[in-house]
Structures are given as structure tokens and as C-alpha cells.
Amino acid sequence: MDLKSNHTALVLADPAPLNKSTLRVSSGLLPYSGATISQNLFLTVPTMKAGILDIRASNCLDSMESSSPPDKKSRDFNNDLESTDTDVAYRAWLHKYPSALASFDQITNPAKGKRIALFLDYDGTLSPIVDNPDSAFMSNDMRAAVKNVAQFFPTAIISGRSRDKVYEFVGLTELNYAGSHGMDIMGPVRQSFDDHSNCIRSTDNQGKEVNLFQPASEFLPMIDEVFNSLINNTKDIRGAKVENNKFCVSVHYRNVDEKDWTVVAQRVHDVIRNYPRLRLTHGRKVVEVRPVINWDKGKAVTFLLESLGLSNCEDVLPIYVGDDQTDEDAFKVLREGNCGYGILVSSVPKESNAFFSLKDPQE
Questions:
Q1: Alpha-carbon distance 279 to 266, whole Å?
Q2: Residues 338, 325: contact at Cβ < 8 Å?
Q3: Burial letters for 84-112: b for 16+ Cβ neighbours within 10 Å, e otherwise?
Q4: What's the pTM?
Q5: Which domains occur in the chain, in start order?
Q6: Which residue ranges in the chain fall short of pLDDT 50?
Q7: Which of 188, 202, 240, 198 shows the shortest CA–CA distance to 220?
Q8: What is the DSSP letter of 112?
Q9: Which superkingdom is the protein from (predicted)?
């Protein structure tokens, strides 16, 4: 397969004829006209009433358990029979979510003649999941691979971390970065975004002019307040770690004894019960406090495609690679728009809106 490079994106030569299986960019994926943010940006959630807090905390605990599969190091102690059952289940799961490596031709054939845009999560995708979130470093080989890809494809990282933190981990100027699950996007300057109330001109670390899009900017004082409250409320829980990701707050319980997860859930609800404009989401051994706005990683993908000049283009193929529940919003946008591929990184079977899978970051 021949690769032809230009300054904007890579085009795979010898385009295949259009047919029913050819992927198209749906106009329904691109709701942005560059004028104003939709009034539907802000969501409405029921007020937390006194007397139902424990029920909410119990529901939170259920979500914590369901979104946190056992660590591999604990599974290694299982007996051979259970290990065999797990392997069988994973192989059966691969029929629904085939390996992206084994399906390389199936992915690249529809990409012929199209420009590919690559979107990547960070934790669990470019770096392994580790006990200490401050030590989630990507390998030099992974950094070199991402740098090489970015020479040919427009590439962006969309992470739940703060944008500054994920840039500190990655350190590549060739990429576009979106932190706080897409609530803090740094992208190329486009005149069509100048009228966005939440879009401002700024400069990156190299002094280059960029656009900053921050749809939850008014929540910053509230997020800082909640962060400090959560620090105080969880400081006596051994192993708990609270991380300020600028537009959201993460409470990590990976190193908390499972018998204390109930305490974590209750303490988090003790704080957010007073903030009806904030909501909880769940990831891999992490509870996140986020603003109640109609924004997620899927909408961040849509926004970045337009920022990169790749919206409303039938010759664009977006690919998103991620491992967490929050990445499902991006997978869903690509699946429902019939416009690209989601690739789930997971070593355990689980339902997803992705089309393909990879077992771990190394793959």
C-alpha cells in the first residue's frame, strides 16, 4: 500500500469505488456552524434531596464495582479452570469486537482515498494503568510511534486529565490536545470560531497562536472548591487520591481496600450533594465529578474535526482509540454517524460502541 504525504493529512492511494460499505461523514455528526454554542449545552439534573443520599451513595458503589474489573495481578492467583473460562470468554468476545491488528485490511481498505484523523485517549491507551496516576508515563517507543503517526495523520489526544498534565506526559508539539474529557481543547486557529463565547485566542508553548475552547469555564471556581472539599473529606481514607483536572475532579480508589469503597462513595456524595450543577461519572477505579453540561469526548471529536478543517468531508476517516467508559461517547459518535472506527483497548470482555479492539497499550 503506497502512502502519499502532504502538510495536512495522509491519503491512502488507489481509492476504492464508492459502495454501500464505504464510510461517509454524516452531517448529523457536525452540529457546529461556528456561530454560537447550542443552548442545549447545559443539562438539567434532579436536585439531590435530603434522605436519599445513602441510596445515591449505594448506586455510586455499584457503579464503582461494575466499572472496575479485577487487576491482572489479582487474577493471576485464580485457578487454571477460571483462567481457562476467562480466555474462552475473551475469544468469544473477539468475534464481536475483532482485533484491530488482525483486521488491518478491513480497516485500511475503506480508507483508500480518504484522509485519516486519529484521536487517542491517554491512560490505558498510550500508557499502562498504574497504581499512582502521577506515574502513568508512556514508553519512549510509544512516544516515537505517536510522533511518527502525527507526521502523516492529524492526531489529537482527548484525555480526562487536565490538558497541561497530558501534554506534560506526552511532550509532542505535533499533536492537538483536549483535556478534562474535551472540556479544554487547544486547536488550530479558525476564523469561524471567533464568535464562540467559550473560544479564545491564546498561544502554545512554542508561541504559536491557537484557539482555546473551554465550554465549562464558568465552573472553574466551583471545581476548585469541590477539589479542596474532597481532599479534606478523603484524607483519612488510606490509598485515596484526589486529582484536580481543571474542569473535573477525579477521586482515585485503585489503592483503597475494597471494604472501604463504600466510605469513598459516601464521602464523595457528602460533598457533591450541595452542588446540583455537578454530576458523577465512573471510570476504571476512579469516580469523577464533572459539570452538568452537554459535552463529552464525542462532541470533542466533532469539534476537533471542524477545527482541523475535516468536517463535512466525505473523504475523511476518523479513528478513535480508547479504553474507558468515557471513550464510549466518542465511539458512539463514529458508529451512529457511520463515519469512522472506534477501537477499544481492553483485556476483558465488555459491551462497547467500538468496532474493533486491542488487548493492551502495547498492541
A1: 14
A2: no
A3: eeeeeeeeebeeebeebeebeeebeebbb
A4: 0.80
A5: 41-66+218-291 (3.30.70.1020), 80-215+295-358 (3.40.50.1000)
A6: 1-39, 45-53, 73-75, 78
A7: 198
A8: B
A9: Eukaryota
